[in-house]
Amino acid sequence: MEYPSITSRRSPVAKAAAALSASAKERRERRQFLCEGARLCRDAALSDMEIEACFFTAQARETYSHYLEPVLQVCGQAYEISQPVAQLLSDTRSPQGVFCQCQWPGTLEGLAGFAPQGPCLVLENIQDPGNLGTILRTAEALGRFRVFLLGDCCDPLSPKALRASMGAVFRLALSWEPSAQRLMKLLEGYGYKTHGAVPDKGAVPVTAVDFSQGLHGVLIGNEGSGLTEETLGLCTDRVTIPMGGRAESLNAAAATTILLWQMAKGGEEG
Amino acid sequence: MEYPSITSRRSPVAKAAAALSASAKERRERRQFLCEGARLCRDAALSDMEIEACFFTAQARETYSHYLEPVLQVCGQAYEISQPVAQLLSDTRSPQGVFCQCQWPGTLEGLAGFAPQGPCLVLENIQDPGNLGTILRTAEALGRFRVFLLGDCCDPLSPKALRASMGAVFRLALSWEPSAQRLMKLLEGYGYKTHGAVPDKGAVPVTAVDFSQGLHGVLIGNEGSGLTEETLGLCTDRVTIPMGGRAESLNAAAATTILLWQMAKGGEEG
Fold first, then answer.
1. To the nearest whole percent, how much of chain A has pLDDT over 90?
2. Label partner for A73 (CA 20 to 30 A): which of A21, A233, B67, B252?
3. How far apart are CA A153 and CA B17, in angstroms?
């Protein structure tokens, strides 16, 4: 099959797609994002993302035909693009040459429709897109945690976050919520126990929490400064990771992995 | 105090330092590496790294004086450098303007002097310097694991790995060893049980291993392909992380965090 082609970097269609890759503001205002890479685009299609347009180079159409197939079946428009246009759209040095322009996932905004069905993870003011993506990937791997992005988190739909998440963004129930008051009240109303993670030896060791009973949420704060005092004040308690080595040197993603693992196992221990 | 200054990017001293930042081969051949950033340079000094030379901009000398002080006390040479020279040495876009040229840590080569004192971590063919650095940081935080880099791991002294490790490279006992046969024989000789991590539901769940008795080592393989068959064949057993979600999507650093955490806690569970 023949597709319309875009060979100029001045094409308005290509420029509009590139802007989505480059700018969080563009994504927010247009309620769209750009997804890059053969596997990630296939994952978007298989996860029922609404795909407005797909872009691929002639080379990519050959190399990644099995990834492209499900995308071409569901996308609104498809364009064959030249290598320079692929470079324009890409966030990487050696683009695979496959891109999708998608609508924001419906769940991403607001708390409407939240059903208290299991453990949840609240991330406050996470700044690094690689960290955010990795954490989302782990949250999916260990049990499909419900995830809330609180305050001023970086954008989970940026190219770096999408890449690090390996598509978990498409499959997790994930909501952005600016207000700690509103979110914590909602969780409390459903009977959640909320555990704020702090690097503080006086807090409850996470190994002493019985996650097997009731509903639980863990809260993780910014990479440098942790949870805000406001949010900590709204938590049921404060938990910490007891460590044998140098306490200060566990990064946000590693700390989150341990907390999610403890929750997933459900377990209090000796 | 006045220090000799380097203002030209053609300075042989600056070029020699920059080469250490850019090339693993240079580091290996000259048995030196370049450390960037005020905090990392201070950590190198406080960890008894042998510092041949320190480089700083006038701006950095003011801004980071408390970090620079311990470095200047122990370094062989110190140079004030211009902003363009700082750019030449730097791996980042906005350099802090503090660098140290250091000798390789003595422990890094060979297995001589290995004393079986606790749990160890073996990393085989880890390719991403950010992953490697993060794993080393976690290995330090959770209990100062003895770490072996097996086969063709990326360089722990590259700028990216150093940065992600937050200086853990300076403080951990860390050895490079190309031969799985030699390493596994050594560990076996000391009575270590060695657990090869695999994403395989048929393997022993890590929650069923009793790490509290005897000496244990976990082995983690390459991000894409896992442990080699040769190395797996030399392990006491194969362990896996039981997961509620999508098993394939736990990255190497997250998987390692969970395994180290289980070892650090020492614990078998229900």
1. 80
2. A21
3. 37
